[in-house]
User: Fold Saccharopine dehydrogenase NADP-binding domain-containing protein from Roseibium aestuarii.
Amino acid sequence: MKKNVLIIGAGGVARVVAHKCAQNNDVLGEIHIASRTRSKCEEIVASVHDMGNMKQDGVLEAHALDAMDVAATVALIRKTGCQIVINVGTAFLNMSVLSACIEAGVAYIDTAIHEEPNKICETPPWYGNYEWPRKDECARAGVTAILGAGFDPGVVNAFARLAKDDYVDTITDIDIVDINAGNHGKYFSTNFDPEINFREFTGTVYSWQDSQWKENAMFEVGQEFDLPVVGKQKAYMSGHDEVHSLAKNMGSPNVRFWMGFGDHYINVFTVLKNLGLLSEQPVKTAEGLEVVPLKVVKAVLPDPSSLAPNYTGKTCIGDFVKGTKDGKPAEVFIYNVADHKEAYEEVGSQGISYTAGVPPVAAAMLVASGEWDVKTMVNVEELAPKPFLHILNQIGLPTCIRDENGDRPLDFS
Amino acid sequence: MKKNVLIIGAGGVARVVAHKCAQNNDVLGEIHIASRTRSKCEEIVASVHDMGNMKQDGVLEAHALDAMDVAATVALIRKTGCQIVINVGTAFLNMSVLSACIEAGVAYIDTAIHEEPNKICETPPWYGNYEWPRKDECARAGVTAILGAGFDPGVVNAFARLAKDDYVDTITDIDIVDINAGNHGKYFSTNFDPEINFREFTGTVYSWQDSQWKENAMFEVGQEFDLPVVGKQKAYMSGHDEVHSLAKNMGSPNVRFWMGFGDHYINVFTVLKNLGLLSEQPVKTAEGLEVVPLKVVKAVLPDPSSLAPNYTGKTCIGDFVKGTKDGKPAEVFIYNVADHKEAYEEVGSQGISYTAGVPPVAAAMLVASGEWDVKTMVNVEELAPKPFLHILNQIGLPTCIRDENGDRPLDFS
Assistant:
């Protein structure tokens, strides 16, 4: 049994994590939240109290922390007595925070692969570049490190594992589809950190096809999907973390990720990319100032967390899994539908932050209970999916299934 | 008689000015070229020699100068003995360079209104904000200051005056149309300094209609024009310097400026503007760096002078002037057609730089000869147009006329 959670980060996802941890502080214990700017953490703490989201009286505390500083992070972990760290700061921090968790001997949970500021879309599998080489280190230290425990990656990995366990014994295709059919009412905005969002789409699109890595350009391969609730939606094959672990762990010759984009998004993205404004490499202005164009684009775009109050509509994210079951063709779509407005009313965030922030809290609850406290590094599909989906069912992200037997909520009875 | 020319600036237009001055150094005397970065001036000097553009042996010299520094500019004027300054540096320099010319008692020629870095599209008439308030100062000092002596403003002002002198005695409408039907082969580029280019289009579009200032948004009012050589072209009512002086000096109740834009330009412009990337006001990145978005856009776009080698096609810029002549309806289109490739072959620049850079040299030749050495501040339409157009006819920018009597070169006989 582990307890007390340190949340690293103070953006839209961190806010959801804090609210959800507070709603489950009977299981999780003390909640600490730390980022470079302490006032952002304090604002989140205040919002948790304002919305009455503390399940029971307890500690909910804000801290200033530069999480690139491993010693400072270790010190904060020790000072607070946290045994679980949920890292939802920028993806550039991951390896530093993992180092701190290993040194302090506490559990680590993140929601996205580690990135280096000056590199994008490195060699596949991406987890092989930074995370997996440290698995032995985690095992030796008996440290549980759960990688990519957001929605995608995260819940969609559990969906794939559930499909394999119960619906399709020999898998040929895993197609993960992420559609945001919401409307934020702005000319343009990304739904999470623009820097991370655009970095996802400026590099090579890696997919796993015929049991090998295949390279495409962004927006090169598009397909229409007919989905529950959100209907027919155009999505494009995109690079995404989970493809890189599912390709290794699921034995499926095909793993692809599809992200929904409207024509307007594609137009804005294409203009910015072609002009060089999405580059992570610095340019020099005529006045001699060195600046990374992508960071300026981020500075002019709306703060994704500011979208929440006016965001309407729904998201649908799920896995089409195809293959055979008992020798016969089988196909299943396992998915979740979330609502932007409901998310805002519950925790003050929009649906994209909500779907990303609730799952690592469910993971933390399973680490706390011991069920997922595996004392080594794992991706989510290596863990039993049902306890995870069961908690998510209870804390705001219910799972549904659509197959030849109809479209229905997943039955946990 | 004045002689010896100091060119301020080392961009694409300055290059044309230098080459054209060199081609006419029998009239103009010594040629000096100065900018912050002396190596850029040296590169221009070398290109003049390489292309054999010195008409006769003489001085052609590069200097380092911060033209915001009035004392330094006065010192350079005195040291070089220049009696004519052609200011084709950034529009932010104009008032400093004018101050230096007044102090040194030499002639001043520019090609665009003065701008302050943090302001765009100030109250009309624009010349009333910085230039015209200094007219008395010029007159008292006996200093010739010719404002806006590029193509537009500049030659188009002379076209309007020519129309009034010879073709339309009571003018009702002056519509200046600027079409670039060239192709530079890049995804996107502005044809001159992106910072100045975009600043033209981000603010209010001021036009002079029914003898008063009217405000529109950019791309709000569009119209198709059928022009010689370049054919039917869509153009949009835009703010432009010459509207602000012609409205005062021509007695026409309507003065409008129309700039041709393709759908692709408008799309890129619209995306950048709506995102806030064309703003001249600084933003702060997440890392705390203060940066002006427009300067970053400038940094990622192609250097306009780099377009020249592959630029093909033609420009057509001219004035539709409408009204009555001897009591009967009259209409004339006075225009020039320039060719990007021919410009490059002659002076190593593309056509937009060429049309902007040749006219101030013609103006300098008229100041040198005394014909335009008026010893006060003037806009081009206040000066006799024919000597100007006659020189331009000889040095690369011939004038044509289209009216009820046909489409023909302007006759100077």
In short: The first helix of chain B runs from residue 12 to 23. Chain B has 14 helices and 19 strands. The radius of gyration of chain B is 20 Å.
